[in-house]
Design a protein that fits this description.
The protein is an alpha+beta fold. Helices cover about 30% and strands about 35% of the residues. Helix 1 packs parallel to helix 5, helix 2 crosses helix 3 and helix 3 packs parallel to helix 5.
Length: about 350
Amino acid sequence: MNAMFFTNKTDWSLLAKYMAGETNAEEKAALEAWLDAKESNRKLFQQIKTNWMKMDRMNARFDVDGAWSKLQNRIVVESNETVSIRHDHEQKISRRLFTPMRIAASLLFLVLLGAALVSVNNRMQTIRVIASVAEKNKMVRLPDGSTLLLNANTKIAYSRQFGKKNRDIVLDGEAFFDVTPDKSKPFTITAGHAHVKVLGTSFNVNMRKGDNQVEVFVTTGVVELSEKGNYNNRVLVHPGNIGLVNKSVITLAKADDDNILAWKKGVFTFNDTPLSKAISLLGDYYHVHMVIKGAGMDTIKINGSYEDDTLDRILQIIGQHNPQLTIAKSDDTIYLSLD
């Protein structure tokens, strides 16, 4: 195997490959040897790496013309110098730097630079909104007049051209949509394995039902629900119904859970609800880890309506109505068990 390193000169090809994350072990060793050779090499490397990171973070506009001009000047200066290449059998070869390989290396660097700038530009054209774990009912008003309520720990992304060329949203989490009608531009949502298309309606999309499940609950209008990437696999979901996408399987059901929109309304209604289901809903809403311990816990049914109550208050009432139930706290976890 040949081992190669540059003692004094800049190998732009190797630098470009490193910035792109494409160097192998031998090339990485060659770069480290080049860095150890001179302090100026390390300074140049750090400057290039800093600019590369700035582009990726989009914290500054990158002067492409200026950067390329400086790169050309540096290559021209070095084109009149020589570089030593050492092979395993200690043979040394001297040659001019300004060769077809050197030109190719500089072009490779430019191509990689251009690709990075395209990536940064694409990111700058996308608007991202995040509702933190502590934020419930975060309101988002879109350019077309549509409004979204984001549940806690939810992310959305859409183009800066939203409403002009399209009305496309990418969702990660749970949100309630109230879509402004526009027959010329359907409103679409991509969430996990599901694709939602509407003209104007209101509905809830929840992709927290499981790793591969997305639930769509419609309150007004009609929603077209399909498998992402397979438009032929689709159903229409009408008000009061739920469409569920589980990988490639789509099912329809009548909504019989009063708590589907509990996160939005802040109201929980339990009618002989199994304890495990009630605790799951409360844990999600209040972002608390709740654990049920012991057999026979689902023989306990929960009743009552709770509006804007604290979790402590709800658990206190549940405990009063079910004296056989023990509720204990430990750090950030609440344990429920039978005496």
